[in-house]
Amino acid sequence: LIAFLKHSGCSMTRLHFYKGRNMKKLFVAALLASLSVLSFAEGKIAVVNIQEALINTNVAQQRLEELETDSDFKRDVDEGKDLQKERLALIEKRQKDGAVMAPVELQQLDAKIKGKEADMEHLARKLQSAQQGLMQGLMLEMNEGMQKSMQEISKSEGIGLLLMANPQIVLYADTSFDITAKLTDKLNKLYKPKKK
After folding, report:
1. Which member of 20, 65, 146, 153 has the greatest number of CB atoms within 10 A?
2. Which residue ranges of the chain lie beneath pLDDT 70?
């Protein structure tokens, strides 16, 4: 082909253009062929959101409910709500009276607002830490059953490649590719909530 193009008087620029276009077409064709062979040989591709599957289990819902009714947790939540109200009141005061306040008074008011915000952030981290600790404990407790369930689902659904439903890995997946709900169902059968 290259010899023919040279012989027919085609310039080197055109020659590189033809080579580039053909190489791109060849690469795309090879990629599509390899993907189709892979999908036939190895099965379907699916995604799973392990955290979502775990948090939607009956056991996780019961434990989160227990955490939210815990006296210390409730106290921290109530304190956070009070801090938010106090912060909003201070902001409102600054907006209403700020124009007539002395610079020293404005600095003191701003310091109080920042103090409330810092206290709120500390409480939010504390509450989030409690929830994350609970979820990590559940992850460890259910890990063996989760691995087994994912293998069973993959086998029964003919899945050859199972990916984490992570936006950095999977840009888009139709719901028909998502086995998260199926994993939750299997975990609900394996792990029962405690009777109250």
Report:
1. 146
2. 1-42, 196
The number of beta carbons lying within 10 Å of the beta carbon of residue 138 is: 20
Is the C-alpha dihedral spanning 157, 160, 164, 166 positive or negative? negative
CA–CA dist 163, 111 (Å, integer): 48
Q: Which two tokens stand for residue 54?
A: 């775990």
The pLDDT tens digits for 152-190 are 999 999 998 888 887 777 777 778 889 999 999 999 999
Residue 186 makes CB contacts below 8 A (sequence gap 6+) with 145, 149, 152, 153
What residues contact residue 123 under an 8 Å CB cut-off, 6+ apart? 76, 79, 80, 83
Contacts of 26 (CB under 8 A, 6+ apart): none
How is residue 92 written in tokens? 């409102």
Residue found by looking up tokens 């409480």 in the block? 123
